């Protein structure tokens, strides 16, 4: 493919010979993309990889931990991470870009949503939802033996941050925050409660398979604003900060700082690349709920969106 | 002596009581005295070990160099060396040999067919021992194919094939070195303690920097974790060689090298194989964590399945790890046995002497050639795989829907009457008092050296600012160890006294030890929710094994003369157990508890994944923030707790053995 | 009995404890009390012996007497704290590691109490082992090994593993292995102690048969006085690390140096120790078949008592040196109190 491109370029435009030599100057070393352990990221990364391959680059996928991968990105062992969530990875990303060895390659077009979430059946038991005020009146509905009389809210792993303890206090909710250690544990709680149709309110994020598998919705808190987090006087509670919902943020691409020099063409494609939340949710649903093989999902997308991605390549 | 003891008993009990009372009322006392520093180490006293360590690490990574060769160059060279055989194994077993790994790679030679690999292990089983073993390992590999785990299992097998020889061989060499140089053992011993007790997450980040991102780092981490038992067993085994054999070797005029490799090592081979077995088991224990940093394989399948809450798939991948562990372990045991014997060459051509090898090679070639026409010969057809995933999912669902209230009641009972009181007591004990008590205990059990060790290590934890988290750690581990002992020791005694029960219990224990704890962690979360109780169940399940094994071994090895003496004195079965067997087995049981504590501590990082708030969580947080210093300090604090517990219990066990005249 | 001295040790000390070396150099001849006060254990104290070529020299003592330590000092398996060990006039204690290896490879052999066979090797491979480590040609080594295996009566069991053999057979392997290099000096460290009494007796006979053919210089350790008396040319008796007496069995019985030695000899049937030469009437003549002077009384007692008249006694050359009669023999056989 790459060979073809070069011949084509050389034959058509002799004047563009410099362009063709720019192509050939790019390294034939494989670009290493990181894979994590959730389907959305796998799909996202493999689409990116497929597009790069179509553009004539060598690509290699490396299994890596979400946070530990920054060590590899810094040293140049890894080159591209496709999903760094504003909400969970910002700190690590900032730390890495500050070192000068990692660059932020722009957003993926997807937006991370994270918020308190409850199954639909809770609407009957706690009328008024999804408005957050309803939680004030029926916190006992959500109580368990350990947290009684307070309601139990299952937060994300401590490492995700999220300021839920502060939120509970600022909004005067009678809830106790219990942290799940991983998202596997988090959704195990949801699955368990959902099977029994027991009360639960917990941290859910999207794009993820859970909102499509389980019927339910996000709690509507007062809208996030930066002042709400930083300034106690802003928001519904004049004395405390964090009296609002969680911020939503883009999902970033992170790259090794040497990537733009080594594969300038590839870097352009990477920057162009974007997907929407809807597209991604549909694909994740296919993979996780219908059991379609991830490579098939990727191949389907590639054939359905040929125009889109060829546009990114030709720029 | 007697009078001495009776005078001391009230003092000891008094101190224990004082400690408990202080624990319950420590907070109130501190408040009343307005001395908050009693229960919480003032943060101004903290020594910022973590920044020191981070700075040292940064220097090591970025600046350390000998001449033009920097430290990272050296580690990268090592990584390259490890990578070569690994790539070969991986290509042969899983990936196939590729030509120019471009967009459409040319497959020079596909990976070995599942038929050929299964035939190879069957042949190996037959060569090493018997058709029985051949059938067992053949069944193990057939399981992997039929349950659709083949590809991942081969990736895992490739890393095991590299990690185990390096771990076992390196451990052997290090052990020999320590055996030869008396100083060597003194240097190695504390290093081994740390290697075994610092959770792997604590040093994952520096390893990634040193060895690059990918399977090699996973291999290095695995080797660090799996080698220490081999070193210890090597030293022990060489020392245990009959001194007459050593004398003989010297009298035969052997050089030092001949003496080691032709006399000592072969004579110690039986014990050395125990070490190899340990390396294999620990390597497979690491599969999950290794997959987080790029090893892939079955560990990744477990993780990914649990992320989609596919408990069944996770369970099947987990069982595949157990099956692989069994096959590799049994084969290696038999292989060593076979190598221990020297064989007579039967006459004939090479092919006639190596019928099995020829057969396997033929099969490999045939499947490669015919595989071009029929992929069935290369890959087990996906449509023919079986899965029991739905069954496991349904079982958990059934339990959850129908018995959740019962589980909840059990949980609440344990929390209220067992876990929370311990937690409150431990967190309430003023830290100066705790350090003083540990020092005193060390002095009583092992003299001033042990006292200094206990005092210094607990003080270091205090000034590193991790006291409260350390106490939560002690509480979680302590409660789990108590429970594991209460369950494990009776099981061990039963296994020793009843052969049939023994077989069943052994199987259970083997499975629990190799089955990645992640597999049962998530179902347990579903039934018991996140929290300390869930963490405790996971720890107990994992740490049960040594309590059972050592108790069984201790009871079994009570000398038959003593049993006969008991019988002749008219003991009932129960009296025999209570008055003869258990007291004599006590030193072994204590060592088992010691190992249980070690395993419980090594589980902490995993339980952090269900939301505990202890040192394990601290290590995990440090990992996610790529904070080397913070992770290592928390890791060292765990190691210190482990070392204090280990030394105290060992001193106690030695005391018991001396009293029984089993040791002087 | 006048031969060249093969092995001798001079004032050999082996002390265990902190600073034993300095202790000995500051006080070259410490008394038992000195040693005890310094907190040192004296495993071998001032041992001096000479062992002649072709002699069976037995070191006898109870457990803890230091006999095993002494024999290990003689072979330098243990580094003595002080003294000299001369083997063919060469001081072993100053030999380099390389020299020592050469000496052990070609001139010394040793048999161990618990056989010390390598469990992973067959009988033949065990026996070949000392040749293997010398890198001797394989065919030659195997041939030699087969020879000695045959010599100790294990032909046909070459391919057995040690665990498949009885204790007596295992020790035969140990003996064969120690002989395969054709050593001049043969150490046997309680070789028969781990065997049953019947087998032990059989092995002692076997040992005598071998020695009659091979004429090695032998240092033999035992705690069994009967065995010592049966096999020894000379016996050294050790107690608490000291050699109390070195003498022929006969002298020991007749003139024990201390009460301790006498205690051992008391229960030994004297007829089995005393030789005809020792109790004959020297210089007298008699009629009939001559009795050899070296024969033990027990061996010839029956025929002398059965004979009517005294019998002549001859030496090794067949020369008559005296005579022996019924009364002398009867006194040995029944006169228990005589030695006291």
Automatic annotation (TrEMBL), chain A:
Residues spanning the signal sequence: 1-24
SUPFAM superfamilies: Periplasmic binding protein-like II (SSF53850)
Alphabetically ordered keywords of this record: Signal
InterPro entries: ABC_Gly_betaine_transp_sub-bd
Pfam families according to UniProt: OpuAC (PF04069)
Domain ABC-type glycine betaine transport system substrate-binding residues, every copy: 29-304
CDD domains: PBP2_BCP_2 (cd13643)
Record-given protein name: ABC transporter substrate-binding protein
TrEMBL record, chain B:
Primary localization class, coarse: membrane
Gene3D superfamilies the UniProt entry points to: MetI-like
A matching Pfam family: BPD_transp_1
Residue ranges constituting the ABC transmembrane type-1 domain according to the UniProt record: 149-332, 470-649
Compartments where located: Cell membrane
Species whose genome carries this gene: Leisingera daeponensis
Transmembrane region(s): 107-124, 131-150, 156-179, 286-306, 358-378, 450-467, 473-497, 533-552, 589-611, 631-649
Membrane topology: Multi-pass membrane protein
InterPro entries reported in the protein's UniProt record: MetI-like, MetI-like_sf
Family: Belongs to the binding-protein-dependent transport system permease family.
Superkingdom in the source lineage: Bacteria
Record keywords, A-Z: Cell membrane, Membrane, Transmembrane, Transmembrane helix, Transport
Name of the molecule in the record: ABC transporter permease subunit
UniProtKB/TrEMBL annotation, chain C:
Species assigned in the record: Leisingera daeponensis
Subunit and interaction comment: The complex is probably composed of two ATP-binding proteins, two transmembrane proteins and a solute-binding protein.
Entry keyword set: ATP-binding, Cell inner membrane, Cell membrane, Membrane, Nucleotide-binding, Transport
InterPro entries according to UniProt: AAA+_ATPase, ABC_osmolyte_uptake_ATP-bind, ABC_transporter-like_ATP-bd, ABC_transporter-like_CS, Gly-betaine_transp_ATP-bd, P-loop_NTPase
Keyword Membrane: yes
Membrane-related topology note: Peripheral membrane protein
Enzyme type, top EC level: translocase
GO molecular function terms attached to this record: ATP binding
Descriptive protein name: Quaternary amine transport ATP-binding protein
ABC transporter domain segment(s): 7-265
Localisation per UniProt entry: Cell inner membrane
Family indicated by similarity: Belongs to the ABC transporter superfamily.
Pfam families: ABC_tran
Catalysed reactions, as listed in the record: a quaternary ammonium(out) + ATP + H2O = a quaternary ammonium(in) + ADP + phosphate + H(+)
EC number(s) per entry: 7.6.2.9
Transport found in the keyword field: yes
């Amino acid at each position: 493919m790459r060979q073809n491109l070069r011949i084509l370029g050389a034959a058509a435009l002799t004047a563009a010979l410099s362009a063709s030599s720019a192509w050939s100057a790019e390294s034939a070393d494989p670009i290493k993309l990181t894979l994590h352990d959730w389907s959305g990221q796998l799909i996202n990364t493999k689409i990116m990889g497929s597009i790069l391959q179509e553009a004539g680059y060598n690509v290699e996928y490396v299994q890596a931990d979400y946070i530990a991968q920054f060590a590899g990105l810094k040293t140049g062992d890894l080159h591209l991470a496709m999903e760094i969530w504003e909400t969970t990875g910002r700190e690590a990303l900032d730390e890495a870009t500050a070192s000068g060895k990692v660059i932020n390659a722009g957003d993926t077009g997807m937006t991370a949503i994270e918020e308190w979430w409850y199954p639909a059946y809770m609407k009957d038991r706690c009328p008024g939802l999804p408005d957050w005020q309803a939680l004030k009146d029926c916190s006992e509905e959500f109580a368990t033996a350990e947290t009684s009389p307070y309601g139990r809210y299952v937060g994300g792993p401590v490492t995700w941050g999220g300021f839920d303890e502060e939120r509970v206090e600022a909004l005067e909710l009678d809830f106790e925050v219990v942290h799940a250690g991983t998202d596997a544990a988090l959704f195990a709680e949801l699955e368990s409660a959902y099977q029994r149709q027991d009360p639960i309110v917990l941290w859910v994020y999207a794009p993820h398979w859970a909102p499509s598998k389980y019927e339910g919705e996000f709690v509507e808190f007062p809208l996030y604003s930066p002042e709400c987090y930083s300034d106690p006087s802003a928001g519904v509670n004049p004395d405390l900060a964090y009296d609002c919902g969680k911020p939503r943020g883009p999902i970033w691409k992170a790259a090794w700082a040497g990537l733009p020099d080594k594969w300038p063409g590839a870097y352009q494609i990477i920057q162009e690349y974007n997907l929407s939340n809807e597209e991604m949710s549909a694909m994740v649903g296919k993979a996780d709920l219908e059991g379609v093989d991830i490579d098939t999902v990727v191949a389907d997308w590639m054939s359905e969106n040929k125009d889109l991605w060829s546009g990114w390549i030709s720029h | 002596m007697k009078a001495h003891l009776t005078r001391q008993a009230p003092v000891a009990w008094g101190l224990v009581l004082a400690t408990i009372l202080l624990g319950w009322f420590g907070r109130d006392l501190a408040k009343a005295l307005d001395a908050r520093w009693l229960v919480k180490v003032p943060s101004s006293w903290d020594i910022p070990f973590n920044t020191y360590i981070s700075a040292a690490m940064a220097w090591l990574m970025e600046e350390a160099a000998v001449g033009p060769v920097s430290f990272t160059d050296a580690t990268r060279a090592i990584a390259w060396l490890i990578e070569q055989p690994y790539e070969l194994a991986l290509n042969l077993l899983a990936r196939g040999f590729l030509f120019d790994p471009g967009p459409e790679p040319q497959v020079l030679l596909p990976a070995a067919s599942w038929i050929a690999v299964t035939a190879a292990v069957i042949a190996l089983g037959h060569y090493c021992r018997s058709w029985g073993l051949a059938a067992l390992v053949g069944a193990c590999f057939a399981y992997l194919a039929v349950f659709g785990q083949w590809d991942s299992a081969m990736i895992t097998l490739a890393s095991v094939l590299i990690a185990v020889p390096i771990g076992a061989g390196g451990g052997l060499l290090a052990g020999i070195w320590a055996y030869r140089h008396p100083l060597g053992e003194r240097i190695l011993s504390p290093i081994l303690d740390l290697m075994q007790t610092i959770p792997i997450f604590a040093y994952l980040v520096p390893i990634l920097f040193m060895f690059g991102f990918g399977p090699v780092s996973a291999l290095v981490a695995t080797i660090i974790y799996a080698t220490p038992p081999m070193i210890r067993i090597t030293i022990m085994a060489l020392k245990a060689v009959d001194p007459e054999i050593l004398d003989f070797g010297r009298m035969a005029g052997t050089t030092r090298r001949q003496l080691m490799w032709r006399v000592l090592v072969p004579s110690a081979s039986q014990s050395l194989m125990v070490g190899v077995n340990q390396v294999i088991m620990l390597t497979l224990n690491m599969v999950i964590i290794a997959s987080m940093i790029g090893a892939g394989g079955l560990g990744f399948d477990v993780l990914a399945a649990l992320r989609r809450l596919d408990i069944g798939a996770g369970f099947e991948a987990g069982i595949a790890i157990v099956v692989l562990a069994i096959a590799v372990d049994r084969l290696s045991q038999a292989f060593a046995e076979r190598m221990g014997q020297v064989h007579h060459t039967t006459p004939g051509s090479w092919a006639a002497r190596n019928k099995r090898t020829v057969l396997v090679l033929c099969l490999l070639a045939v499947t490669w050639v015919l595989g071009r026409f029929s992929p069935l010969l290369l890959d087990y057809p996906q449509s023919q795989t079986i899965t029991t995933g739905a069954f496991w999912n349904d079982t958990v669902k059934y339990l959850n829907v129908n018995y959740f209230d019962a589980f909840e009641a059990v949980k609440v009972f344990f929390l209220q009457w067992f876990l929370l009181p311990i937690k409150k007591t431990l967190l309430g004990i003023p830290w100066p008092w705790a350090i003083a008590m540990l020092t005193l205990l060390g002095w009583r059990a092992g003299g001033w050296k042990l006292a200094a060790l206990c005092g210094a290590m607990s003080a270091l934890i205090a000034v590193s600012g991790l006291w409260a988290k350390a106490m939560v750690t002690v509480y979680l581990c302590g409660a789990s160890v108590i429970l594991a002992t209460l369950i494990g020791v009776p099981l061990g005694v039963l296994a020793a006294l009843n052969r049939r029960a023994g077989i069943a219990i052994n199987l259970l224990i083997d499975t629990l030890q190799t089955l990645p704890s992640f597999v049962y962690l998530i179902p347990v979360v579903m039934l018991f929710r996140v929290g300390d109780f869930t963490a405790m169940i996971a720890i107990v399940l994992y740490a049960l094994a040594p309590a059972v094994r050592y108790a069984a071994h201790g009871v079994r090895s009570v000398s038959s003369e003593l049993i006969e003496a008991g019988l002749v004195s008219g003991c009932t079965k129960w009296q025999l157990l209570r008055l003869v067997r258990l007291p004599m087995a006590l030193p072994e049981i204590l060592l088992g508890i010691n190992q249980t504590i070690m395993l419980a501590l090594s589980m902490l990082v995993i339980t952090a994944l269900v939301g505990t708030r202890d040192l394990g969580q601290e290590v995990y947080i440090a990992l996610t923030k790529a904070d080397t210093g913070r992770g290592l300090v928390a890791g060292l604090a765990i190691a210190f707790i482990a070392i204090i517990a280990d030394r105290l219990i060992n001193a106690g066990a030695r005391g018991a053995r001396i009293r029984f005249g089993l040791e002087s | 009995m006048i031969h060249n001295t093969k092995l001798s040790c001079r004032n050999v000390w082996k002390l265990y404890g902190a600073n034993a070396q300095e202790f000995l150099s500051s006080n070259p001849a410490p008394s038992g009390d000195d040693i005890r006060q310094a907190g040192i254990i004296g495993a071998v104290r001032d041992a001096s012996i000479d062992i002649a070529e072709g002699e069976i020299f037995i070191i006898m003592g109870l457990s803890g007497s230091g006999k095993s330590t002494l024999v290990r000092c003689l072979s330098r398996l243990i580094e003595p704290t002080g003294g000299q060990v001369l083997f063919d006039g060469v001081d072993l204690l100053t030999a380099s590691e390389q020299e020592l290896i050469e000496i052990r490879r070609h001139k010394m052999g040793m048999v161990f109490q618990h056989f010390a066979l390598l469990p992973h090797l067959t009988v033949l491979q065990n026996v070949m082992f000392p040749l293997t480590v010398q890198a001797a040609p394989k065919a030659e080594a195997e041939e030699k090994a087969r020879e000695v295996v045959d010599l100790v009566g294990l032909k046909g069991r070459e391919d057995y593993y040690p665990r498949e053999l009885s204790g007596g057979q295992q020790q035969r392997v140990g003996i064969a292995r120690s002989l395969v290099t054709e050593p001049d000096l043969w150490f046997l460290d309680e070789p028969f102690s781990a065997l049953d009494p019947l087998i032990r007796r059989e092995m002692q006979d076997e040992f005598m048969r071998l020695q009659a053919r091979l004429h090695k210089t032998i240092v033999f350790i035992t705690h069994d006085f009967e065995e010592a008396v049966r096999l020894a040319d000379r016996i050294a008796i050790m107690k608490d690390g000291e050699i109390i007496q070195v003498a022929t069995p006969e002298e020991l019985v007749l003139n024990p140096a201390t009460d301790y030695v006498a205690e051992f000899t008391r229960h030994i049937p004297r007829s089995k120790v005393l030789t005809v030469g020792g109790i004959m009437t020297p210089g007298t003549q008699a009629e009939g078949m001559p009795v050899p002077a070296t024969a033990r009384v027990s061996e010839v007692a029956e025929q002398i008592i059965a004979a009517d008249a005294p019998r002549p006694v001859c030496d090794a050359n067949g020369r008559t040196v005296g005579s022996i009669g019924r009364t002398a023999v009867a006194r040995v056989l029944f006169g228990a109190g005589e030695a006291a």
